[in-house]
Design a protein that fits this description.
Number of strands: 13
Shape: globular
CATH architecture of the domain at 169-291 and 367-390: 3-Layer(aba) Sandwich
CATH superfamily of the domain at 169-291 and 367-390: Periplasmic binding protein-like II
Strand content: 15-25%
Distance between the termini: 29 Å
Largest sheet: 11 strands, mixed
Structural class: alpha/beta
Length: 392
Amino acid sequence: MKRRNFLQGTSVILLGSLAFGCRPQATPIKIELLKDSVPVQMVSKFRQEFSNPQAINFIPQARLKDLYNLLQRETENPEADQSLLQYLYNLLGWEKENAADQSRSDLVMIGDYWLTEAIQQGLVQPLDPKAWERWNQLPPQWQALVTRNRQGKLDPEGEVWGAPYRWGTTVIAYRRDQFESLGWTPQDWGDLWREEIRDRFSVLNSPRETIGLTLKKLGSSYNTTNLDQVDGLEEELRQLNRRVKLYDSDTYLKPLITGDTWLAVGWSTDFPEKFRRQHNIGVVVPASGTALWADVWVQPASEKPVSEIPLAQAWIDFCWRPEIATQMSLLTGTTSPIVVKMNPKDLPETLQTNPLLLPKAEILDRSEFLLPLEESTLKQYQSLWQEMRQKR
């Protein structure tokens, strides 16, 4: 599952970067990222633009959760693991201060889900969008996602806490063979309530996602702050619960492949083109709008702002170059936010005609990021979720 499980042996890659990396006269940067989220072609091109490409170390991690845990460790215990690093630097004859610099990350990729908590816990520090050439090329929805106050809440007068790198959607995937016999294909959330697929589909094991798609069916928002005011919500959830076969956020692909389910609600990154062709799977972004997610670059809290780290600043802007953004979108099965505002004529045809990577503008306009909610509202979602699951 692309957003959850990958990679063993990250430490080997890190030690390799140390052993063959820059010498003391260079100022290296370290970028922690999710494995397979940055194409090797992008890394190579970025390195080629600098006289000392070894000064840039990209360290892949297995899961987004691992990246957030790393962010916590670095901020809460910046001296962790210094002994091994210092030993290696001593072997190479490097200075102590260079070892300390190398031990800390300059940029870390995290999911937007963790941004609120990272700000509240003081794990990250604000960035300076004035230093970015292409910040204004991002769509307003993506700018607003990372503009927050010190409590992690969205605030148009707040500071910018992250640089959006890529995004994706919650989608409906279905077995083409089964739906050919039914004579129709899913197009929107309301199709989950159709009697023909009772006990034949899975939804995500997530209150925000599953209650959210029900809210969209009813014409409301994923980020509704008072569920009691949504007419018919509880009954719609009861009806959905009677029809769903399983709630699963981790292994829902397996029953879809084997035919135990005919349809699955999941994340767009879990359905690359090769997988869809191999298993005859169709995927649709619901017409009434869906949930969006984003991965963003953040800077761990430290004394040095990212504006004083030229290579880190350059990397963020590099990711937003139109030609790089389109390449990343085609190679990773996710989409750069820059692509949304580009002239369609400037996009490769394979990107223009891929509704999974670039949904229709009207669908995207109806879609929403899962925004931070007040604790009392989250408890309301959780309470309704538990009540629904208990009544079968």
